[in-house]
């Protein structure tokens, strides 16, 4: 059976798997037009429920997914984690993150993504880790750069958008973390 992973808690955040009762919080975040402005559309409540289900399939099938992130007091902050994606037909692990609008700009995505990077280093290194980003999503790109990623490719898989692929080779603990 595949082992299910969780990043270590950080100074302000802890990770856990999403459950059905997170729907209220997830639907509020994923339904917010401002937060989802780089997606085709904000998610409806039923699409948010499907998102949670999809993550539960990923935890079981891949051992990882986007985990719910919350403060140590249990305040919902968003999600962050590791999923399989692809660019130009190449499957890659990606670090992903979404932070609720009121809590954006406080360093939470960078803090959470760093914990995911450490998990990757511990469990899968050496490996390529990516962040596949809408070309105008500056905040997301900045998070990727804070991790040590740089622009490695452009994804042409979709006819309507060329996405920016940020990436880095993650080395095991006893080696340098950049490519
Ligand atoms: C991307 C996102 C997760 C970043 O979360 P966050 O907790 O605000 O990120 P941080 O506070 O760690 O900030 C990361 C950087 O983005 C910058 N930033 C934050 N909001 C920004 C905005 N609206 N426009 C431009 N830059 C912004 C910050 O200044 C920071 O850069 P700096 O360190 O150079 O100052 C958040 O903006 C979000 O949820 N966006 C919507 C979902 C999304 O697009 N996810 C990524 C999919 S690829």
Strand order of the largest sheet: 1-2-3-4-5-7-6
Distance between the termini: 32 Å
Run of helices and strands: EHHEEEHEHEE
Main β-sheet description: 7 strands, mixed
Mean pLDDT: 96
Low-confidence stretches: none
Q: Any idea what the shape is?
A: globular
- The protein's oligomeric status is single chain
User: Structural class, please?
Assistant: alpha+beta
> Which percent band covers the strand fraction?
25-35%
Portion of residues within helices: 25-40%
Number of strands: 7
**Tally of DSSP helical segments:** 4
Radius of gyration over all CA atoms, rounded = 15 Å
Small molecules bound in the structure, each named once? coenzyme A
What's the SSE blueprint?
Layout: E1 13-16, H1 23-30, H2 45-62, E2 66-71, E3 76-87, E4 90-99, H3 108-123, E5 127-133, H4 138-147, E6 150-158, E7 161-170
Parallel strand pairs: 4-5
Antiparallel strand pairs: 1-2, 2-3, 3-4, 5-7, 6-7
Helix pairs in contact: 1-2, 3-4
Bound molecules: coenzyme A.
Question: What's this, in brief?
Answer:
This protein has about 180 residues and is an alpha+beta fold.
Overview of the structural elements:
By secondary structure, the protein is of the alpha+beta class. The protein has helices at 23-30, 45-62, 108-123, 138-147; strands spanning 13-16, 66-71, 76-87, 90-99, 127-133, 150-158, 161-170. A seven-stranded mixed β-sheet has the order 1-2-3-4-5-7-6, sandwiched between helices. It is globular. Bound molecules: coenzyme A. Residues 35, 38, 96-99, 104-110, 133, 137-140, 142-143 line the site of coenzyme A (COA).
């Amino acid at each position: 059976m595949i082992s299910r992973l969780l990043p270590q808690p950080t100074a302000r955040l802890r990770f856990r798997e999403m459950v059905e009762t997170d729907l209220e919080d997830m639907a509020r975040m994923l339904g917010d037009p401002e937060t989802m402005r780089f997606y085709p559309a904000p998610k409806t409540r039923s699409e948010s429920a499907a998102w949670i289900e999809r993550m539960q399939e990923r935890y079981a099938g891949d051992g990882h997914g986007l985990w719910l992130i919350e403060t140590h007091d249990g305040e919902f902050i968003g999600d962050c984690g590791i999923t399989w994606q692809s660019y130009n037909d190449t499957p890659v692990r990606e670090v992903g993150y979404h932070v609720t609008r009121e809590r954006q700009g406080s360093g939470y995505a960078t803090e959470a993504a760093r914990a995911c990077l450490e998990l990757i280093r511990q469990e899968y290194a050496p490996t390529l880790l990516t962040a596949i980003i809408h070309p105008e999503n500056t905040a997301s790109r900045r998070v990727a750069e804070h991790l040590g990623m740089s622009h490695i490719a452009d994804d042409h898989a979709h006819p309507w958008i060329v996405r920016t692929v940020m990436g880095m080779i993650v080395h095991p603990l006893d080696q340098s973390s950049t490519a």
